[in-house]
Amino acid sequence: xxxLAYARRNVxxxxxxxxxxxxxxxxxSALAExxxxxxxxxxxxxxxxxxxxxxxxxxxxxxxxxxxxxxxIGQGTYDSTAISSAVTNATRFTAxxxxxxxxxxxxxTSGVTxxxxxxxxxxxxxCPTTAQGNYVTVTATPTSPYKPFIPYGVVSGxxxxxxxxxxxxx
Length: 170
Description:
Blueprint: H1 3-21, H2 29-75, H3 80-89, E1 96-108, E2 111-116, E3 133-142, E4 163-168
Antiparallel strand pairs: 1-2, 1-3, 3-4
Helix pairs in contact: 2-3
C-alpha cells in the first residue's frame, strides 16, 4: 500500500474514532441527548403498539359480527345456534360470545326502528305494513373487555370492543 493511501486510511479511521468516542469538547453530549430522548421514543412505541392492538381486536370482533349477519343473509332464515357458530368460526378469538335477535322493524334515517317481535304484531300506526321487514341483529362480544398494557393517562381502564350488525332477511 502506498504511503498516501495509508495516510488517507489513517485519517478516515481517526475521524471515525473521534466521532464514536468523542474526542472533542462535546464528548458525551450525544449520549446525554440519547438518554433523554430514549424513554420518550420507547413510550411512543409502546402506546402505538397498544393502540394498534386495540384497533386490531375491534376489527376482529366487527368482522365476526358481520360474518354472522352474512350467514343470515345467505340462509334467509333465523337460526341462533348456526349464527353463533358462524360468528365464533369467523375469528381467532376463543373467548367470544355471540348473541342474535330476530324482530320486525321499519327502516328509518337513523337505522332500524323496532316494531315488535313478529311482523304480525306490529302496529300499522307505528310502522306501515308496506315498510315492515324481518330483521336480525348479531352481536359479538369478547368475554372480557380489552385492557391496555399501559393506562392512557386520564382515559384508563378497559374498553368495550363489542360489535353489532343488523340485516334485513325478508
